[in-house]
Amino acid sequence: MVQAGEPGSTRPGGRTARVRAAVLAAAGDALAESGMDGLDLTDVARRAGVGRTTVYRRWGTVPALVADLLQDMAEQSQPRVETGSLLKDLLANARLVRETLAHPRQGRLFKAIIAAATCDERTARALHRFYEVRISEWAPCVEQAVERGDLPEGTDAREVIRAVSAPLYYRLLASGHPLDEATAERCARAAAVAARAGVYMR
């Protein structure tokens, strides 16, 4: 999570919350359209219909704005599904990741943020926090599978969840192969088989 005192870290309600929502939506649109190089605080203010000084006073820099956008994305992500079945839980996770990355706007948005994170430390930290939130949200489904006896004791739940989404991000960023439903199912099934075989034991 964004540390207390960082720009955009407060959670007030009312008009301030509406301004934040409008600015973050505008920032996301700008990132999806033009990437990090096209993200300008003045342009974001114009898109959001708020004063330029409001944006500069609250966020101050582009990395601070991106950090707040990532925190908001983590908070707004769909909650974990609990089915009582390891495979069904992993399938739900894989489908959610696939739908996000295959979405015309969200896929471009993630590409832009990941590219920026390779050369901007603050964006990288924000991206790492985003994924830690998402991994922490889904890891309990693996822990519950261990408790049920479906997986070996000592299975690293977080590594299992990472294994589900890693091939999907590879397709988004490297191979260019389709992000289709069949691929998402294959990722989930492969992670489940490997976990049962003890591949992800600590």
UniProtKB/TrEMBL annotation:
It comes from the Bacteria. Pfam families: TetR_C_11, TetR_N. Residues 17-77 form the HTH tetR-type domain. The keyword Plastid does not apply. Keywords: DNA-binding, Transcription, Transcription regulation. Residues 40-59 bind DNA. One of its GO terms (molecular function) is DNA-binding transcription factor activity. This is AcrR family transcriptional regulator. It comes from Nocardiopsis metallicus.
